């Protein structure tokens, strides 16, 4: 399939209701409003195709950009490629659920994510922390430096309340993910969550919401999810 054929299929799958939901979360035109589950049959036909992924991502169409992440070849992408994708990721559903997810399957994931976390840019920071959530929730504990993850928890503890709004979500998720999916630092994550307490996130024209990593970790424990690892990062 070429880019035109994929775009036609995506457009046919678009629904106005889904389009409105994406729009309320920050997506803007062009977009079709395709439910992610509806993309799977097309993805099965195409499998992995990095050149096509690049063409789709460059359209600027949200649904095409999301689909690009599904068929991308993470290890075929260089750090410069990931930076380019991040430059075009204009809201969190692209930064955290397309770019960060794709990066999480690459060998250079931690290296790139570390730079994004240190960037000071809201969506890059969010993508960096999110990438670690995908990594910790999928890869064996032994692939990570315990001291590094412990230092990252300290960084969250000391900076989350003063961080950009979208980054707060990803940092909060990081505490939760360490608490549930990275057993060596479960206790430290619980302690960090308690020390951080509720995290206020301000939203445009809406009431603030409050994030509670401590409660979410406990829910994970109650559900028997301690040590949980996903089989796959991407759908």
From TrEMBL:
InterPro entries: ARM-type_fold (IPR016024), DNA_alkylation (IPR014825). It comes from the Bacteria. SUPFAM superfamilies: ARM repeat. This is DNA alkylation repair protein. It comes from Paenibacillus germinis.
């Amino acid at each position: 399939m070429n880019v035109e054929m994929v775009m036609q299929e995506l457009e046919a799958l678009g629904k106005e209701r889904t389009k409105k939901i994406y729009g309320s979360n920050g997506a803007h035109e062009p977009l079709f409003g395709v439910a992610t589950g509806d993309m799977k049959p097309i993805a099965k036909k195409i499998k992995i195709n990095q050149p096509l992924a690049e063409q789709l991502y460059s359209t600027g169409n949200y649904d095409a950009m999301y689909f690009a992440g599904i068929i991308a070849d993470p290890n075929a992408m260089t750090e410069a490629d990931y930076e380019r994708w991040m430059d075009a990721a204009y809201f969190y559903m692209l930064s955290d659920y397309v770019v960060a997810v794709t990066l999480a399957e690459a060998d250079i994931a931690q290296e790139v994510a570390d730079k994004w976390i240190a960037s000071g840019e809201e969506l890059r920071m969010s993508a960096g922390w999110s990438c670690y959530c995908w990594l910790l929730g999928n890869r064996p504990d032994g692939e990570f430096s315990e001291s590094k993850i412990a230092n990252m928890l300290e960084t969250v503890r000391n900076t989350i309340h003063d961080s950009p709004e979208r980054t707060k979500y990803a940092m909060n998720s990081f505490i939760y993910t360490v608490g549930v999916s990275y057993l060596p630092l479960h206790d430290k994550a619980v302690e960090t969550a308690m020390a951080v307490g509720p995290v206020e996130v301000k939203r445009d024209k809406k009431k603030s919401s409050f994030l509670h990593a401590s409660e979410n970790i406990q829910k994970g424990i109650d559900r028997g999810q301690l040590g949980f690892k996903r089989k796959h990062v991407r759908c």
